[in-house]
Design a protein that fits this description.
Layout (H helix, E strand, L loop, with lengths): L3 E13 L4 E13 L3 E5 L6 H8 L7 E6 L2 E2 L5 H11 E4 L11 H11 L4 H14 L15 H13 L5 E5 L7 H17 L3 E6 L2 H4 L4 E6 L2 E4 L1
Parallel strand pairs: 3-8, 3-9, 6-7, 7-8
Antiparallel strand pairs: 1-2, 1-4, 4-5, 9-10
Helix pairs in contact: 3-4, 3-5, 4-5, 5-6
Length: 226
Amino acid sequence: MNELILDVNGLKKSYVTPVENLVIFEDLDLQVFKGESVVIAGKSGSGKSTLLNIIGGLDHSDSGSVIMNGCDISKLKESELTAFRQKVLGFVFQFHHLLKDFTALENIFLPAYMAGMSKKNAMEKARALLADVGLSERASHLPAELSGGERQRVAVARALINDPQIVLADEPTGNLDPENAVLIGELLFNITRQYQKTLIMVTHDMNLAKKGSVRYFLENKKLNRE
């Protein structure tokens, strides 16, 4: 039987504006099983990134629960949540968020080193991941010396360095040209499968969405499975 790794129940998120209480989504449920590649598609402004941020503990819901590995993350203190994210989650954002003064290799290495891995082991693992994303020859290059697609490849490798159970990808191809968008999309699906990770991705790219093993569409405040 498949292992339930994420159980989202009755989630509601709204924002208070000067003119209204804007409900982003409500009564939202989502179950994700270990090893799945789940894609949540929807138009810009539908709340996809907000949902992913709540799942990742980067934002809070108004009500409902997010239970990951049997842990209700909404009940964790901030320090506990930080440690939980570091251990369980890997993030790939639309904008790579690489440290501009560090090389490609160092950007991948740092999260593992900061998590307590020895410098030697962290560097070895970073080099292996850099090879897996096809950038061994770019190890010493700074982000400014890399193309947009290359920077996002580094970000994918960085997301895997701490051996997370779940990789969360927020519009990972949204800032790339069409050719690189296809390449990065394929890389994400392939490398998370290779490393036996669960992938949860949000995107407005329907061609990319079709590659997921499970697909949802977020529209009119509701999440519907295709």
